[in-house]
Prior knowledge:
Layout: H1 11-29, H2 50-53, E1 59-60, H3 61-65, H4 69-76, E2 84-89, E3 99-103, H5 104-115, H6 117-120, E4 128-131, H7 139-150, E5 154-157, H8 166-176, E6 180-183, H9 185-197, E7 209-212, H10 219-229, E8 232-239, E9 243-248, E10 255-257, E11 262-267, E12 281-287, E13 299-308, H11 316-320, E14 323-326, E15 333-336, E16 339-342, H12 343-351, E17 356-365, E18 371-379, H13 385-400, E19 404-408, H14 413-419, E20 427-429
Parallel strand pairs: 1-13, 4-5, 4-6, 6-7, 7-8, 17-20, 18-19
Antiparallel strand pairs: 2-3, 8-9, 9-10, 10-14, 11-12, 12-13, 13-14, 15-16, 17-18
Amino acid sequence: xxxxxxxxxxxxxxxxxxxxxxxxxxxxxxxxxxxxxxxxxxxxxxxxxxxxxxxxxxxxxxxxxxxxxxxxxxxxxxxxxxxxxxxxxxxxxxxxxxxxxxxxxxxxxxxxxxxxxxxxxxxxxxxxxxxxxxxxxxxxxxxxxxxxxxxxxxxxxxxxxxxxxxxxxxxxxxxxxxxxxxxxxxxxxxxxxxxxxxxxxxxxxxxxxxxxxxxxxxxxxxxxxxxxxxxxxxxxxxxxxxxxxxxxxxxxxxxxxxxxxxxxxxxxxxxxxxxxxxxxxxxxxxxxxxxxxxxxxxxxxxxxxxxxxxxxxxxxxxxxxxxxxxxxxxxxxxxxxxxxxxxxxxxxxxxxxxxxxxxxxxxxxxxxxxxxxxxxxxxxxxxxxxxxxxxxxxxxxxxxxxxxxxxxxxxxxxxxxxxxxxxxxxxxxxxx
Length: 432
């Protein structure tokens, strides 16, 4: 099945593929009820011209949140029930999840998208991956695991911590000696904290690479993972609406996107017009091979990125594929009494404090009906939790100019909470 869509021979070949597949995606979209009347003014023979292409309306999750599953299927699905092989759950932490139908061809091409990550990160014959993503309706776990065999890579189908407890996962790593850990960054950090409690030095383990996805990987989090595991940390990028879209190279300077499988744009958030390489905007992508059932055009998931033509990594993947580089900010923030707290900045701030193993930030309404920031932390065993909590309270006030209530939790509490989620709910709005 690896021959289903071999790597292109050149960037010129990729441009030809994009041109042909954009036309197919456009014609499929015209079959969906939601697009009725929205594409009639577009010249299908001029889709390669930016001015014509960007006439296509952008689709985002706000569009889908207005629809229940029945309405979503009616508006966007263009295939009969007998063509649907499975459903992929969206991975967001806010709003009701969306369940995307996938045809048998979608699944085959989907496995190519995930499978390409292995050679892109020099994972191959002789490697064994320990995957700690949920093995279920969300595709990140089960499709990634299935794709490994197509690319000659060993795979231990372990699953998330809610199905295989963290202590058991550590025992499996010691016993099976995998070379690669595939995990959300928060869970990989939790395993390192648990190992430290048990006196296990993970820097001496068999794991030499950690592959992260589904959560933002800040520089502080990456450094902490590399230090506690003694491993090289890679990031990959994907979404349930499309598949796994790309992965880092050895330079770790951005993610190379399979541009023969996904047509990418970075657009102005206000106008929807394409931006030049290096300019910061919203990432829009059009699946070129995984849109048989739900033919999204110009899907915007809210990621803020820049487009980079050529990265610094060597090798075939870096030569063929351009990169996206996520901005040091996201669309996620808390607004507390007029002050915006960016989630990414706050996460970097916390993870740069070595004695704090993990955290969760809550926005709550207190007894006086005032908005309050509550920060739950787990403190490294052996450190003075009270002193660290007091110091953190002062630091937050100084850096972010808001007062916070600090709660110290028992080590492992947050991991148990996060284990049941596809993406760790590290920032939660619980205001009444």
